[in-house]
Amino acid sequence: MLKMSNVAKIYVTDTVKTQALRSFDLEIEAGEFVSVVGPSGSGKTTFLNIAGLLEDYSEGNYYLNNQDVTKLTDTQKSRLRNEQIGFIFQSFNLIPELNLFDNVEMPLRYRSFSAKERQRRVIDALTKVGLANRKSHYPQQLSGGQQQRVAIARALAGSPSFLLADEPTGNLDSNMADGIMSLLKDINASGTCILMVTHDLEQAHLADRIIEIKDGVLTEGIPSQNVVA
Amino acid sequence: MKDLKPIIKSLIREKTGPLLLLLQIAVTYTVLVNAVFMLLQKHEEIHVSSGLAESELFWFQMSLHGEPEEMKASLFRDLEAIKSLDTVKNAVTLNSIPFSEWGVGHEIRLDRNAEGFITKAAFYTGSHDAAETLGLKLIAGQGFELSDERRLFDFGLDTPSGIVISKALAEQLYPLDWQQVLGKTVYLNEDAQVVKGVVEHLIGPWSYWENSNYNVLFSTATVSSEVFLMIRIQGESAKQSMQDVMRIVMQEPNRTVDHLEMLTESRASAYRSQVAAYSTLKAVVIGLALITMLGVFGQARFAILKRRKQIGTRRALGASRIAIVRYYLLENAVINLIGIALGMVLAIVANNLLISHFNLLPVPSIYLFYGSVIIFGAGTLAVVQPAIRAASISPSEATRSV
């Protein structure tokens, strides 16, 4: 489903070249749950941005559902993100002026769904995260855990091939975090592939596979306790 | 247009920012529409057609001495001598000079016994060929013949001698069909006069007077110790013509001459303060429009750029660059349209206040339309650059932690 070969990322400024990610190969199958761990500044977010087509890579090839994304235009990448990738952000990134319904509906408006189809998908997604009855509320009327559930509903509403979760529990207390992890496990159990960046080793172990990134080097396997911040 | 509903919802939710922008647009609209209308009115006033061959005319005031008959003889002797000059096309005496601010006015009635009057008008009285000399265009009826000319020591306008009036005055007297005025008797104060002809334009002595286009011309040369002479030049050199004329008039002992000037100079002088006010108002309007555009630009830019994270999130969730530009243009259009609608109401209210307090004309509705188009265009133009800049925000902004 996701195949990267010899992918590397180098940031170039006027005087400095920084190797953010060294060349790596990675393959993730449909339905997998993969955690990405590593200390701050190790390149986790860069990796997530590349996987989510949010940022270009400097070298290598990346196939998403057998489609080479290297030469896609910005508009084609936008469409691919919209249709195949669901994003869950650490700080939820909900739009405060919009109620839950409109927040979840927002990415669907970039597709050719009818208003009725959009409504059905929004209600389905909000039902999955247990917040359908609060669809007219605004984000600031919800707890952090509930806001992240709305963000998950927004990610699910477009029926993506996989979810990219960037520290999904980073801003939550442990009870709320457990709830979110349980929800992600359920989503994964229903067949959606998840790629999750986390600081939390315990949560990382809930995944099928763990990838460690340290100093821009990506390695497969279970990291030692002292590697993770 | 799928974005319209959420845009309206979020604007209602956000309130303060959009409201400030909206008020700015509304106030600008109000001020601009009224100020531009005033500017155009002022422009029209300053550039009003005088009906005169201004660039070919100069005038002066000169003294006459001796007994009345001596003064009369001296005046017409000099006039004949001036007319015979190669550099002069014609010369006439007039009681008053356009733009000079020296003149006499009458109340005009169509019925001698009517209470009140229809309007007031200024009058020029002088040589029978004054109309031709001034360059006036006769558009109905007839002008004066030599036989119509009287030469008096007082105004003597109570004697029916026939008058020529300006079309503007004719229209004021007979609004439905101004040509009906021909052959009709009008009353200047109490004195009856028959209208012989109508000239297309004739400006009055007072440029600032609201009735400056209402004027009456008599064929009566009045002789007094100070007279005005109007000279139409022949050829290209006004200076030469002036020198030639002065050489003749200054042959008379004790003769004094005052105000020797081209009619174009008189016009410039009469409108100097109005031109200054017009230029100042124009500068203020342009400055205000620029400041407002910068304000709208700044507000739009701030409103967009404070939402960097939100824009990054939209991009991450699938919005193309075009979709981002479209979103912010549409949002701005909504604010603009509401601002213009509010501005339209304010403009009408402000205009009504100006009408009641300063006797101004009502702003025609076409100005409201043009104002809307200009403000909408300027507002849209101001937001294009910030919107394009917003579209260039990377989708990776969504995952940035600060």
TrEMBL record, chain A:
Alphabetical list of Gene3D superfamilies matching this protein: P-loop containing nucleotide triphosphate hydrolases (3.40.50.300)
Listed GO CC annotations: plasma membrane; transmembrane transporter complex
Cross-referenced InterPro entries: AAA+_ATPase, ABC_transporter-like_ATP-bd, ABC_transporter-like_CS, ABC_transpr_LolD-like, MacB-like_ATP-bd, P-loop_NTPase
Keyword Transport: yes
GO MF term set: ATP binding; ATP hydrolysis activity; transmembrane transporter activity
Domain ABC transporter: 2-229
Tree of life domain: Bacteria
Keyword annotations from UniProtKB, A to Z: ATP-binding, Nucleotide-binding, Transport
Family: Belongs to the ABC transporter superfamily. Macrolide exporter (TC 3.A.1.122) family.
Full protein name: ABC transporter ATP-binding protein
UniProtKB/TrEMBL annotation, chain B:
Organism of this sequence: Pseudoalteromonas luteoviolacea
InterPro entries, sorted: ABC3_permease_C, Macrolide_Exporter_MacB
Protein keywords: Cell membrane, Membrane, Transmembrane, Transmembrane helix
One Pfam family recorded for the sequence: FtsX
Similarity remark: Belongs to the ABC-4 integral membrane protein family.
Domain of life (superkingdom): Bacteria
Keyword Nuclease: no
Any one Gene Ontology molecular-function term assigned to this protein's record: transmembrane transporter activity
Domain spans labelled ABC3 transporter permease C-terminal: 284-395
Location (main, coarse): membrane
Compartments in which it is found: Cell membrane
Topology within the bilayer: Multi-pass membrane protein
GO cellular component: plasma membrane
Organism classification: Bacteria, Pseudomonadati, Pseudomonadota, Gammaproteobacteria, Alteromonadales
Transmembrane regions: 20-40, 283-304, 325-354, 366-384
Name of the protein in its database record: ABC3 transporter permease C-terminal domain-containing protein
